[in-house]
Structures are given as C-alpha cells and as structure tokens.
Design goal:
Blueprint (H helix, E strand, L loop, with lengths): L1 H31 L3 H9 L3 H11 L3 H18 L1
Length: about 80
C-alpha cells in the first residue's frame, strides 16, 4: 500500500505540469480545426501529452486552408 501512495505522489508533479498545458492544447486544437476536447485530454496525459502539443503546433491553421479555398474558387471563376 505504501508503494502505491509513493507512486501517486511522484506522479502528482507531472499531472500539475500537464494541467498547465491543457488550455493551450484546447486553444490550438480549435484554431487548427481539430477536436478541442480530445486534444485537451491527450495533452493532459503526462509525458505523451507534450508530443501531442508539438503536433498541434506543427499543424497549419484552419483559417489558412479556408483562405486557400476562397482563392482557388476565385481563380476557377475567373477561368470559366
């Protein structure tokens, strides 16, 4: 029983650090057009969450894709 308690206590700092990144993961996922709740949960997982956060940072914003679609539609209209 004592070993389980020490394991939980040693995991606590990782959970506190991970919880500070959850809002950032939520906001980034929203901007990137991904599921904010899913990525907030994934970012909360200690050690692995940082990889998901880096993945979100590397993605292109959804706004950029929308702009490219509008430009492409305008170019198609001009050629027709």
């Amino acid at each position: 029983m004592e070993g389980e308690a020490s394991t939980l206590i040693s995991l606590l700092p990782l959970l506190v650090m991970s919880s500070t990144w959850v809002p950032l993961g939520f906001i980034l996922a929203k901007r990137k057009g991904r599921s904010p709740v899913r990525f907030a949960i994934l970012v909360f997982i200690p050690l692995v969450g940082f990889v998901f956060l880096l993945y979100l940072i590397a993605l292109t914003d959804q706004e950029v894709y929308d702009r490219l679609d509008r430009i492409e539609a305008l170019l198609k209209q001009g050629k027709a």
